[in-house]
Amino acid sequence: MKVIVQKYGGSSVADPEKIKKIAGMVAAVKKEGYGVAVVVSAMGKTTNSLIELAGSISSDPPKREMDMLLSTGERITMSLLCMALNDLGVDAISLTGSQSGIITNDRHNDARVIEVRPIRVQDEMAKGKVVVIGGFQGVSYKRDITTLGRGGSDTSAVALAAALNAERCEIYSDVDGVYSADPSLIKEAKHLPEISYQQMQEMSTAGAKVLNAQAVQFAKESGIVIYARSTFKPGNETVIKTILPGTSKGITGVVHEKDVVRVILSYEYQNSGFYELLKVLEEKQISIKELNVVEAENETVKSKASFVISYKNIYGWENLREKLEEKFKDKIEFNYNLSAVSLIGEGLNRDNEVLIKSMDLLNKGKIKVSGISTTSYRLSFLVAKNNMESCVTLLHRKWIEGRE
User: Fold this and answer.
1) How many Cβ atoms sit within 10 Å of the Cβ of residue 217?
2) Going from the N-terminus, what domains does the chain have, and what CATH number goes with each?
3) How far out from the chain centre does Cα 208 lie?
4) Strands (DSSP E) along 279-386, which ranges?
5) How far, in Å, CA of 251 to CA of 331, rounded?
6) 81 HSE (CA, 13 A, CB side)
7) Local confidence band at 310 (pLDDT 50, 70, 90 cut-offs)
8) Which of 148, 222, 303, 355 is the S-S candidate for 162 at Cβ 3.0 to 4.6 Å?
9) Cα distance between residue 332 and residue 93, in whole Å
10) pLDDT value of residue 273
């Protein structure tokens, strides 16, 4: 049996009428003879409401208990969609992430899928049922409920697609694929019919919300082609797949992340200050990026480490920051009111041309750059948050629209 895995995001299942419409779409695919697994997110802003609810109880809720709470949102959606499918005469069954065999590590709120054992899903499909799965969740090897981080339903879908050897994985949301920039910010943003796994992963890491970065990594490793589509406006789509190096040239997109904090730690020569800080962050399961460490050569100068944290979705961040300030005193510094703006393309670090021209453009636009980082597919600038929109606009005009 050929299998198709579909995923519907929160905006696609925001109310009963939308869930009924999706049931009709799923039923149509089932009638074509496919085995269908549907991964769903929580309805609309349910996850945000649950986070606010937790905040009204505790300023620093335990991560394990947050997972127990947040995983309930997807369970509501999957049950309702099964009810709608059964009303259409389509036999359907809902399964949680753990019932579907999604096994993760023991990292709460940002777990990583380590194995998928889809035996129950396959058994139900063999009976002719549509299987509706709660996304964003799994079970650790300790049998604790875990969640996969924001956008984790994408990861659920792609991981299941790989385990089921699906023909394709379709990701449905309120946008018809991937654009060269956020179309709500840049009216001239261009739709991308296709994009490579590597560039899509860089876009996701840099702040694009269309797809989860871990999901793209899964797809790349498993060779699963992803179709990013609009739920209610069929037509355009973006296909995420293997694209040979050299096929896609130039800048593909300009991506932004609105709220980041840069952490700077100064410490004495041969002191383990950075190591101690890293241990605290790992204990709290806080991921870092754009790491830069300069170790002192002698006692006359201090070693320095800096990195960036996406803090907006970290529960209890302010409490953690206060504890770090208490532990490291004046050795630690937090730079807020920063945003990251990134150029995405192939071979951006082959020479300095793109960097030089971009710096010149931002300098003329009186936009101060507070930090720069590069990979083969990404060139990122740290700028003041109030300059973020201007920065995206200037870089998009230059590199995507081809005008100054």
Assistant:
1) 18
2) 3-245 (3.40.1160.10), 254-401 (3.30.2130.10)
3) 8
4) 289-294, 303-309, 332-345, 369-374, 378-384
5) 39
6) 38
7) very high
8) 222
9) 52
10) 85
